[in-house]
Each structure stands twice: as C-alpha cells, then as structure tokens.
Specification:
It comes from Rhynchospora pubera. The protein is mainly beta. The chain is 11% helix and 34% strand.
Length: 571
C-alpha cells in the first residue's frame, strides 16, 4: 500500500509539472489532487454540497483551477521551495481574495475562495465588498537567488483597502506594473475575523542587505464548534522581519453563525459510508476495542468512594450519573470476578465507532470525529537505541478513548484531511498523503497497546526519533480490522437538534477507570538507574515530558470531557 500511495504522489507531481509545476511555462494550468474514486451524488437537502455557500451578505465559491505565476527554490539551501498560483476560471460576478502558494514537495492540494455580494440578503449602508484603492509593493524577487531557472523578477503586492474594509490576501505579478483594481475584493471589516500564521512555507534569505522575505499559510484564530473564522486559501507574507505577535492576517467570518451548509442526517450517513476509514489494529494487539454496551453487559461496574463493591451498569448506561463535572466521586472499573481477565481484552466483533458531527471553520467544513473505546490500555515499551525495555505497568489503565476525525468540505462533500489523535496531541494529514485502502476509504493504524492513530504502518516514537529514544508506538496491518463505514453510531450532532439523541453513557463526565495503584515514575526511575550517566540524564529529561496518560494515576474521562469536543483538534 505504501507503493500505491507513492505512485499516486508521483503521478500527481508529474501531472502538476506537465500542467504548471517547476520549470513549466508561465501560462500552464494546474488542478489539485483528486481522490482515487468519483464522489457520489449526495442525498438532497439544505445547502450542503451545492457548490456555493451563502454566509449572510456574502456568497462563497471554491476555485480549484490555478495558473502558475512563479516557482522558487533558493540556491545552497536545504529546502524544497514553493510555487505561487493565480486562481482562474472565476465565475462571473465573483472576486478573488488573493493568490495562493503551495510547497513544491507536496502535490497541489486545496482551493481559493471567491466571493460576491449575496442577492438574497438586504445590503447594509455599506457594500459587503469593495475593490482596493491602490496596491503597495512589499517585496521584489531577484532572479539570481532562484535555482529554478526562472529569470524574470516577481513582485508581491498588498491591496490598500478602503476605510472600513480589510484586504484578505496578496497578489503576485511577473512585472512591475500594479495589478488591476478589480482583480481582487476587500471585505467589510465586520465580516472578517482574526487569522494566525501557521506553517512557514518560504524563507528567502537575500544575498544583499535587504530584509528577509517570508511566506506562511494561515488558519482562523477562532476554531472549534463555535469558531466563526473561514479560511480563504490565500497566503500571508512579510518582508519586515516582524515579531510573530505583530503579524495581523485576517480571514472571513460567519458573522450570523449560519450553518445551512452543514449536512443533514441522511447526508451524514452517506458521507460516513463513502469516506469511513479502515481501522487496522496491530497483529500482536492483546487489548482490542469493544462497544460500550458490551463493556457494561460483561461486568463493568460503577464505583464510588462510599461503595467499594460496585454497582452493575445498565447496558445503555442509564444509571450512570449524568452531566456535571469530574468530581472524583464516581468511576468505572472492570469486574472483580473471573470475568475481569476476559473483559480487558475487548471484543472486536461488538465494536462500533461513535461519531460526533460538528461544524468546523465557520461552517464551511464538517468534522466527523470517530471515537473508539477499548476496555484496557496496555503497558508501554521504552526504545533505547537498539534496546527495548518493557515498562511493566507504566502506561496501562482501564478504559481508553481514542479518536480520529474526518474533515469534509461542505462545498462538495469531499474529504479534505484526517486528524490522527496520538496520545496528548495529533496531526492533520491532507488527502494526498493518505493511504487509501479501497475507493476513498483511507487507512487508520491503531498502535499496539496504546491505540494512538497513525496514517501509515511503522514505528513511531514518543520522544526523539533522531536519538532513537522514546516510547514505542508500533502500527501494522493485520486481520484485526474495523470498517468504520459500516460499524458506527452517530451519538452527537448539536446543530441537528432532536434529530440525534445522545446515549446516556456519553453524559457520564467522570473517569472510565479507577485510580492507578502503582507509582509509575518510581518504577521508571528504578529502570533508568542502571543506565550510564550521560544516557540517564537525557532519559530523565525525556520522562519529565511524557504525556500525562503514561504517568498520571487516574483513568481517562469520556469524549465530552476532552477539550476537542467543543474546540479544534490539538496539533
């Protein structure tokens, strides 16, 4: 499957070069990566997958065809460079917000937004969009610094907006003449939100005494279920070597919190059935997942500080204390009888993914967070160079909630990226870098014993990959596989109101495991006490940075207690 992914990456890059990649003609056209299989016709209803999204006074449209302007890679620097594009084939009446930039070492992926004033909304005193009054040159390239062979100078312009309006992006030209004023739109300030620079795409160090020129991609500063920021697909750049805190990029804003482009219940089912990943557990995994009802039915009990015997839990969790907060007065534990050994090993046949559907990025995307429950999280293994040291009970606990998240584009219902949750953090992976198993269903690899999610098979270290020191996370394909497109349950979707009823157990805000009776750090200190002094010091610093789930002495809380239930994913 790695060969399949690599082949698709190579073909995408070849297509990009032919249509406008490095060393190509200036007027060549590029289109972004597309999924392996065609997108079906989604069930009708609402404003989902209609190609346009109305946000109050603005109508938004996604542009996915680009004309290459300039490609840059600096000589004598270990970097891949980037290419700048102009979105083209913009429908009549719509205006661009800026040009785009993409790293050369990745397939072209993404879009640019175009906007127009809505015809259905009564306009306020001031129009929603206006053309700029001028352009200001912020940086000019020097062809001697570019190793792509492109000789012409390139000019970067920032629009000067009218008073009360904001420029959303930058324009790039091949000559010194200013762009046309009607080439771009500025947006009324109350329809914009604060954005933030995210990843540095390009860092051009001039040979002369000129300032460094840097280019970033951006994302809305306010994200999560209630975030109103909408990404525009443009880049942000600066030639002033400003402090990061002084940079002030902006994005669009869903000012009315309008969620009409979110999918209805029938559309959600269709999305999951089309895009739901294949989840692979390690071939040596002992602690498999189960359904919550199987866990309760097979003896899991509710404990309190006053009741050490434990109360049987109803199959649907109806007798669990609901809502409130984690007050430490209640927790769930494995049964005390002979069934304990069987319950901790889970039951894959009963397993289903629990789906939380929520708006993302101002309602222009849908996040489908897919939660998996494992009755038990196994112990960790420390990799120390060539040595693998079992950590005894360190890392193990009752009740393990893990998840991954599909991010769906509400313009067309296409999978944009997948978030892989990995212990105390995680990573977003764009679709060109996913491993597709069948159709548009990507792979999710669950690590041995710890159940963290990864996009590809392999060894992942929590620690220093360079030094080969860290907690092992082994991911591999096996016959222990879960098809999330078939075995799932939608448990929460606030924006749908009464269409989705949350199960009783989801409202249990306490711990799904007891206080751990072992003292994990003492055990770890005993292990590293036998190591050479130099390695011992490095390892002690590493252990101090371990995720809390490896060192804390409490079971985990359920999905609704995680900060990403309402907020954005941690990465």
């Amino acid at each position: 499957m790695e060969l399949l992914k690599s082949f698709r990456f190579k073909k995408s890059r070849e297509k990009e070069k032919e249509a406008g990649g490095e060393h190509s003609s200036d007027n060549a056209v590029s289109e972004p990566f597309s999924l392996p299989s065609p997108i079906p016709e989604w069930p009708p209803g609402g404003g989902f997958a209609e190609g346009k999204i109305q946000m109050g006074e603005l109508t938004l449209m996604k542009v996915t065809k680009f004309q290459k302007i300039w490609s840059f890679s600096q000589k004598n620097r270990n970097e891949n460079g980037a290419t700048f594009y102009k979105p083209i084939d913009v429908p009549s009446g719509f205006f661009l917000l800026g040009h785009c930039c993409h790293q050369n070492n990745k397939p072209l992926h993404g879009f640019a937004l175009a906007v127009r004033e809505s015809t259905t909304e009564k306009p306020l005193a001031s129009p929603a969009i206006q053309k700029p009054v001028d352009y200001v040159l912020i940086w000019k390239s020097s062809s001697s610094e570019n190793e792509t062979g492109e000789e012409s100078n390139v000019y970067f312009w920032v629009p000067s907006p009218p008073e009360g309006y904001q420029a959303m992006g930058f324009l790039v030209t091949k000559g010194p003449d200013k762009p046309l004023l009607d080439e771009i739109a500025c947006v009324r300030t109350d329809l914009t939100d604060r954005s933030e620079v995210r990843n540095l795409i390009l860092d051009i160090q001039p040979r002369s005494g000129d300032a460094t020129f840097q280019v970033w991609n951006t994302r809305p500063a306010h994200r999560g279920m209630q975030g109103q920021g909408i990404p525009t697909g443009t880049f942000f750049c600066s030639a002033n070597q400003q402090c990061m805190d002084d940079l002030n990029p902006v994005c669009l804003k869903n000012a009315n919190c309008d969620l009409h482009a979110m999918p209805n219940l029938e559309q959600i089912h269709a999305l999951i059935q089309h895009h739901g990943p294949m989840v692979f557990f390690h071939p040596k995994e002992k602690f498999l997942p189960s359904s919550v009802s199987w866990f309760f039915k097979n003896g899991a009990a509710l404990y309190t500080k006053e009741n050490s015997v434990g109360e049987t839990i109803d199959v649907d969790g109806a007798n669990l204390p609901a809502h409130g907060h984690n007050d430490g007065q209640h927790w769930i534990d494995l049964p005390n009888d002979t069934a304990k050994g069987n319950v901790k090993f889970g039951n894959l046949d009963s397993t289903e993914l629990y789906c939380h559907i929520k708006p993302a990025l101002g309602g222009t995307f849908t996040d489908i967070a897919m939660w998996v429950f494992c009755p038990f999280n196994g112990p960790g293994t420390l990799k120390l160079g060539m040595l693998n040291i079992p950590l005894g009970k360190i890392g193990q606990h009752v009740g393990d909630w893990e998840h991954f998240t599909l991010r769906i584009d509400n313009f067309d219902g296409v999978l944009s990226s997948i978030y892989y949750s990995q212990h105390s953090g995680g990573v977003w992976v764009d679709t060109p870098e996913l491993e597709f198993i069948t159709g548009n269903k990507a792979a999710v690899y669950s690590s041995k014993y710890g159940h963290a999610s990864y996009p590809h098979a392999g060894l992942y270290l929590q620690g220093s990959q360079k030094l080969g020191i860290g907690i092992r996370n082994d991911a591999a394909r096996s016959d222990f596989v879960l098809d999330s497109s078939r075995k799932y349950q939608i448990v929460a979707a606030n924006y749908l109101g009464d269409d989705v009823v949350e199960p009783h157990w989801l409202k249990f805000m306490r711990e799904w495991g007891p206080t751990v009776i072992y003292r994990s750090r003492i055990n770890a200190d005993r292990i590293i006490g036998y190591l050479p002094l130099k390695i011992k010091c490095s390892l002690e610093k590493f252990l101090n940075k371990l995720p809390c789930e490896l060192c804390k002495e409490e079971g985990p809380t359920g999905p609704k207690e995680k900060n990403n239930w309402l907020g954005d994913e941690r990465c």
